[in-house]
Write a structure and sequence with these properties.
The complex is a heterodimer of chains A (about 110) and B (about 120). Chain A is an all-beta fold and about 110 residues long. Chain A contains no helices and eleven strands. The termini of chain A are far apart. In chain B, about 40% of the residues are buried. The chains are: A mainly beta (about 110), B mainly beta (about 120).
Chain lengths: ~110, ~120
Protein backbone atom coordinates (compact mmCIF):
# COMPACT_ATOMS: atom_id res chain seq x y z
CA UNK A 1 0.00 0.00 0.00
CA UNK A 2 1.12 3.54 -0.65
CA UNK A 3 2.44 5.57 2.24
CA UNK A 4 1.98 8.85 0.43
CA UNK A 5 -0.67 10.23 -1.82
CA UNK A 6 -0.07 13.16 -4.10
CA UNK A 7 -2.58 15.73 -5.11
CA UNK A 8 -3.40 16.56 -7.82
CA UNK A 9 -2.80 13.43 -9.87
CA UNK A 10 -2.23 15.59 -12.93
CA UNK A 11 -1.47 19.27 -13.38
CA UNK A 12 -1.23 21.30 -16.57
CA UNK A 13 0.08 24.84 -16.50
CA UNK A 14 1.61 27.44 -18.79
CA UNK A 15 5.31 28.15 -18.83
CA UNK A 16 6.18 30.81 -16.29
CA UNK A 17 3.43 29.86 -13.88
CA UNK A 18 4.04 28.25 -10.51
CA UNK A 19 3.21 24.60 -9.91
CA UNK A 20 2.20 23.29 -6.50
CA UNK A 21 1.96 19.62 -5.64
CA UNK A 22 0.85 18.21 -2.32
CA UNK A 23 1.69 15.00 -0.56
CA UNK A 24 -0.06 13.44 2.39
CA UNK A 25 1.31 10.51 4.33
CA UNK A 26 0.03 8.22 7.02
CA UNK A 27 2.62 7.51 9.68
CA UNK A 28 5.40 9.37 11.48
CA UNK A 29 8.47 9.91 9.36
CA UNK A 30 12.18 10.58 9.72
CA UNK A 31 12.34 12.74 6.64
CA UNK A 32 10.52 13.28 3.37
CA UNK A 33 12.02 13.47 -0.10
CA UNK A 34 10.79 14.59 -3.48
CA UNK A 35 11.79 12.88 -6.70
CA UNK A 36 11.25 13.62 -10.33
CA UNK A 37 10.76 11.10 -13.13
CA UNK A 38 10.96 12.00 -16.78
CA UNK A 39 9.00 9.76 -19.11
CA UNK A 40 10.77 6.46 -19.61
CA UNK A 41 13.54 7.24 -17.15
CA UNK A 42 14.51 6.49 -13.61
CA UNK A 43 13.74 8.70 -10.65
CA UNK A 44 16.00 11.57 -9.72
CA UNK A 45 16.24 13.02 -6.23
CA UNK A 46 15.23 16.68 -5.96
CA UNK A 47 15.18 17.70 -2.32
CA UNK A 48 14.97 16.30 1.19
CA UNK A 49 13.31 17.86 4.22
CA UNK A 50 13.84 16.53 7.70
CA UNK A 51 11.03 15.99 10.17
CA UNK A 52 12.24 18.92 12.31
CA UNK A 53 12.27 21.33 9.37
CA UNK A 54 9.28 23.28 8.12
CA UNK A 55 10.54 24.74 4.85
CA UNK A 56 13.43 24.25 2.49
CA UNK A 57 14.53 25.85 -0.76
CA UNK A 58 16.65 24.67 -3.65
CA UNK A 59 16.79 26.87 -6.71
CA UNK A 60 13.25 27.17 -8.05
CA UNK A 61 12.00 24.51 -5.64
CA UNK A 62 10.36 25.17 -2.33
CA UNK A 63 9.28 22.36 -0.05
CA UNK A 64 7.20 22.66 3.09
CA UNK A 65 6.47 20.04 5.70
CA UNK A 66 3.68 20.03 8.26
CA UNK A 67 4.14 17.02 10.50
CA UNK A 68 0.99 17.81 12.47
CA UNK A 69 -1.06 17.43 9.30
CA UNK A 70 1.21 14.76 7.85
CA UNK A 71 1.55 16.68 4.64
CA UNK A 72 4.17 18.27 2.42
CA UNK A 73 4.06 20.50 -0.62
CA UNK A 74 6.43 21.05 -3.51
CA UNK A 75 6.34 24.41 -5.26
CA UNK A 76 8.11 24.92 -8.56
CA UNK A 77 8.34 28.60 -9.40
CA UNK A 78 8.57 30.07 -12.87
CA UNK A 79 7.98 26.70 -14.49
CA UNK A 80 9.60 25.70 -17.75
CA UNK A 81 8.63 23.20 -20.39
CA UNK A 82 11.58 21.11 -19.24
CA UNK A 83 9.88 20.69 -15.84
CA UNK A 84 7.33 18.41 -17.49
CA UNK A 85 7.65 15.14 -15.58
CA UNK A 86 6.09 13.11 -12.80
CA UNK A 87 6.88 14.16 -9.25
CA UNK A 88 6.84 11.80 -6.30
CA UNK A 89 7.12 12.29 -2.60
CA UNK A 90 8.88 9.58 -0.66
CA UNK A 91 8.98 8.98 3.05
CA UNK A 92 11.75 7.45 5.07
CA UNK A 93 10.18 5.10 7.54
CA UNK A 94 11.82 3.14 10.32
CA UNK A 95 11.89 -0.50 9.53
CA UNK A 96 11.47 -3.18 12.17
CA UNK A 97 14.27 -5.19 10.62
CA UNK A 98 16.73 -2.41 11.32
CA UNK A 99 17.41 0.81 9.46
CA UNK A 100 14.97 2.69 7.30
CA UNK A 101 13.18 2.14 4.04
CA UNK A 102 11.93 4.51 1.38
CA UNK A 103 8.34 4.32 0.18
CA UNK A 104 6.83 6.43 -2.57
CA UNK A 105 3.58 8.23 -3.09
CA UNK A 106 1.32 7.97 -6.10
CA UNK A 107 2.86 10.86 -8.00
CA UNK A 108 1.72 14.03 -9.76
CA UNK A 109 2.07 14.31 -13.52
CA UNK A 110 3.05 17.84 -14.37
CA UNK A 111 2.78 19.21 -17.87
CA UNK A 112 4.17 22.64 -18.62
CA UNK A 113 2.99 24.04 -21.92
CA UNK A 114 4.66 26.71 -23.97
CA UNK B 1 29.50 10.03 -13.39
CA UNK B 2 28.70 7.25 -10.97
CA UNK B 3 25.47 5.56 -11.85
CA UNK B 4 23.36 2.53 -11.14
CA UNK B 5 23.43 0.19 -14.11
CA UNK B 6 20.55 -2.13 -14.89
CA UNK B 7 20.34 -4.86 -17.48
CA UNK B 8 18.46 -5.64 -19.59
CA UNK B 9 16.83 -2.32 -20.39
CA UNK B 10 14.01 -4.05 -22.24
CA UNK B 11 12.83 -7.64 -22.16
CA UNK B 12 9.93 -9.34 -23.87
CA UNK B 13 9.39 -12.91 -22.79
CA UNK B 14 6.76 -15.57 -22.95
CA UNK B 15 4.70 -16.58 -19.99
CA UNK B 16 6.38 -19.31 -17.99
CA UNK B 17 9.91 -18.29 -18.87
CA UNK B 18 12.51 -17.32 -16.31
CA UNK B 19 13.55 -13.68 -16.22
CA UNK B 20 16.65 -12.37 -14.49
CA UNK B 21 17.28 -8.69 -14.03
CA UNK B 22 20.64 -7.41 -12.90
CA UNK B 23 21.78 -4.31 -11.14
CA UNK B 24 25.22 -2.89 -10.50
CA UNK B 25 25.00 -0.42 -7.63
CA UNK B 26 27.24 2.59 -7.34
CA UNK B 27 30.64 1.62 -5.98
CA UNK B 28 30.72 2.12 -2.22
CA UNK B 29 26.95 2.01 -1.78
CA UNK B 30 25.89 -0.65 0.68
CA UNK B 31 22.11 -0.31 0.31
CA UNK B 32 20.16 -1.65 -2.64
CA UNK B 33 16.45 -1.36 -3.33
CA UNK B 34 14.30 -3.11 -5.93
CA UNK B 35 11.10 -1.35 -6.93
CA UNK B 36 8.39 -2.25 -9.41
CA UNK B 37 6.41 0.45 -11.18
CA UNK B 38 3.04 -0.06 -12.86
CA UNK B 39 0.28 2.32 -13.79
CA UNK B 40 -2.13 0.65 -11.38
CA UNK B 41 0.09 0.19 -8.33
CA UNK B 42 2.65 2.93 -8.75
CA UNK B 43 6.07 2.30 -7.18
CA UNK B 44 6.16 -0.76 -4.97
CA UNK B 45 9.14 -1.73 -2.85
CA UNK B 46 9.97 -5.35 -3.59
CA UNK B 47 13.23 -5.91 -1.76
CA UNK B 48 15.80 -4.04 0.27
CA UNK B 49 19.38 -5.06 0.96
CA UNK B 50 21.96 -3.63 3.28
CA UNK B 51 25.52 -4.94 3.19
CA UNK B 52 24.22 -7.67 0.86
CA UNK B 53 21.80 -8.99 3.48
CA UNK B 54 18.07 -8.83 2.74
CA UNK B 55 16.33 -6.57 5.26
CA UNK B 56 12.89 -6.57 3.72
CA UNK B 57 11.37 -8.56 0.90
CA UNK B 58 7.83 -8.53 2.17
CA UNK B 59 6.64 -6.73 -0.93
CA UNK B 60 7.79 -9.52 -3.18
CA UNK B 61 5.63 -12.49 -4.23
CA UNK B 62 7.68 -15.29 -2.70
CA UNK B 63 6.43 -18.10 -4.85
CA UNK B 64 7.93 -16.76 -8.05
CA UNK B 65 10.25 -13.89 -7.19
CA UNK B 66 13.68 -14.05 -5.63
CA UNK B 67 16.29 -11.38 -4.98
CA UNK B 68 19.94 -11.87 -4.16
CA UNK B 69 23.23 -10.04 -3.91
CA UNK B 70 25.94 -12.52 -4.89
CA UNK B 71 28.52 -9.82 -4.23
CA UNK B 72 28.69 -6.12 -3.46
CA UNK B 73 28.72 -5.19 -7.13
CA UNK B 74 25.74 -7.23 -8.28
CA UNK B 75 22.10 -7.50 -7.27
CA UNK B 76 19.71 -9.80 -9.09
CA UNK B 77 15.95 -10.08 -9.25
CA UNK B 78 14.60 -13.28 -10.69
CA UNK B 79 11.08 -14.23 -11.73
CA UNK B 80 10.35 -17.89 -12.33
CA UNK B 81 7.93 -18.61 -13.87
CA UNK B 82 6.95 -15.23 -15.29
CA UNK B 83 3.32 -14.25 -15.78
CA UNK B 84 1.68 -11.45 -17.80
CA UNK B 85 0.83 -9.60 -14.59
CA UNK B 86 4.58 -9.24 -13.96
CA UNK B 87 4.80 -6.82 -16.87
CA UNK B 88 6.17 -3.62 -15.37
CA UNK B 89 9.26 -1.49 -15.06
CA UNK B 90 11.66 -2.79 -12.44
CA UNK B 91 13.97 -0.24 -10.87
CA UNK B 92 17.08 -0.79 -8.85
CA UNK B 93 18.35 1.97 -6.60
CA UNK B 94 21.42 2.21 -4.39
CA UNK B 95 22.37 4.37 -1.45
CA UNK B 96 25.37 5.09 0.72
CA UNK B 97 25.44 3.97 4.36
CA UNK B 98 24.00 7.35 5.38
CA UNK B 99 21.35 7.54 2.66
CA UNK B 100 18.55 7.99 5.18
CA UNK B 101 20.30 10.80 7.06
CA UNK B 102 20.24 13.36 4.34
CA UNK B 103 21.77 11.70 1.36
CA UNK B 104 19.91 10.52 -1.66
CA UNK B 105 19.43 7.19 -3.27
CA UNK B 106 20.22 6.80 -6.94
CA UNK B 107 18.00 5.01 -9.41
CA UNK B 108 18.93 3.05 -12.48
CA UNK B 109 17.06 3.57 -15.72
CA UNK B 110 14.91 0.53 -15.16
CA UNK B 111 14.29 -2.81 -16.81
CA UNK B 112 11.12 -2.73 -18.90
CA UNK B 113 9.58 -6.19 -18.76
CA UNK B 114 6.76 -7.41 -20.95
CA UNK B 115 5.44 -10.93 -20.43
CA UNK B 116 3.21 -12.17 -23.24
Amino acid sequence: SQQGEEDPQALSIQEGENATMNCSYKTSINNLQWYRQNSGRGLVHLILIRSNEREKHSGRLRVTLDTSKKSSSLLITASRAADTASYFCATVLPFTGGGNKLTFGTGTQLKVEL
Amino acid sequence: DARVTQTPRHKVTEMGQEVTMRCQPILGHNTVFWYRQTMMQGLELLAYFRNRAPLDDSGMPKDRFSAEMPDATLATLKIQPSEPRDSAVYFCASGSPSWDSGNTIYFGEGSWLTVV
